Amino acid sequence: MSPIHNLKTKKWVRAFDAAQRFKGTACRFDGWARLLVSVCGIGLSLLFGSRSAQADSGLAVIRAGVQQSEDAPFVPADFRFMPGDYVYFTFDIAGFHVRTNPEAGTRHMSLTYEITPQDSENVSLAPTIKGGIDVDLNPEDKEWTPKRRASFLLPSYVAAGQYHLHVAVQDSIAKAETTADVPFLIGGVKVLQPDVITAQNFAFLRKENDREPLEVPAYSPGDTVFARFNLVGFRLGQKNEYNLSYGVTVLRPDGRPFLNNPQAAELKGDSFYPAKYLPGTIALTVPPNAERGQYVITLALHDLIGNRTSEFKQSFSIE
């Protein structure tokens, strides 16, 4: 066998010896590589194992949607419920596990669920509804999926926006759980939350129950001036308690007082969901001999919990 020159040692070695040394090095490298792959495999298993177990269970909320009444068709995506409405909800549960007892000839399922209506910050609009399904199944129930229903009363003073129903289901037999969020819209009052109490969406009305505000707030002598507005930016106490009051002052065109009522209204109470606004109203009867011109309304707003006050002004005319 021909010798081979080793550049490192500058010595001639036999080809057989060189091959044996290379083989040993390759074996050591292969061993380290296998160890690395094994360690990585363990790490990935620890990282994704529980997640895969949940996905493999197949537990799922299906055919879920909101309705205007029980068992009615699901509302379209752009439908808007209004504050104070009932929201009806229907969903099915699929992929649950069944415990079989061959000796007794029984098949058993055991599920629990929770349903909570929430806002975009996951604050609950109403108390959570909880339920369970713990029953024996008949042989013909192999393809059966349980349907569940719930309904919620929306808060009176919730702002317009995007909301959702959060559903959580647990399968005690499979030791698995799943969640789903079903969106819905609430219309009504759009609210901006300032740092201090103020009035928003102020509107003069021709009649007390009018939906559309006057484009030009002009009245005649003898009319009643109606106005509505929303109080926002107030602080809440324990159990979402609120305590507000406002006074109303009206000045004539020449600046003299026309009306001064420092305690026009008081708004006090609490609610399950934190009130985003509170409504205020004004009803002012103008005498037949009222001076013509522009009148200025000043609202003196008081947040008794937040210990803050502010003023808000609007004007109307008598023509």
In short:
The chain is mainly beta.
Provide a descriptive summary of the structure in words:
- The protein has 319 residues and is mainly beta.
- It folds into 2 domains: 60-186, Sandwich (Immunoglobulin-like), CATH 2.60.40; 198-318, Immunoglobulin-like.
- The protein has one helix at 15-57; strands spanning 3-6, 11-14, 60-67, 80-81, 86-94, 99-101, 106-118, 129-137, 147-153, 161-171, 176-186, 198-205, 218-219, 224-232, 242-251, 257-269, 278-285, 293-303, 308-318.
- β10 and β11 (176-186) form a beta hairpin.
- It starts with a strand and ends with a strand.
- The model is unreliable at 1-55 (pLDDT under 50).
**What fold name goes in the CATH topology slot of the largest domain?**
Immunoglobulin-like
- How many helices in DSSP terms? 1
Helix % is: 10-25%
For the record, the CATH architecture of the largest domain stands as: Sandwich
CATH class of the largest domain: Mainly Beta
Descriptive tags:
319 residues, mainly beta, Immunoglobulin-like, 2 domains, six-stranded mixed sheet, five-stranded mixed sheet, 1 helix, elongated, disordered N terminus
Topology summary:
Layout: E1 3-6, E2 11-14, H1 15-57, E3 60-67, E4 80-81, E5 86-94, E6 99-101, E7 106-118, E8 129-137, E9 147-153, E10 161-171, E11 176-186, E12 198-205, E13 218-219, E14 224-232, E15 242-251, E16 257-269, E17 278-285, E18 293-303, E19 308-318
Parallel strand pairs: 4-11, 13-19
Antiparallel strand pairs: 1-2, 3-5, 5-9, 6-7, 7-8, 7-10, 10-11, 12-14, 14-17, 15-16, 15-18, 18-19
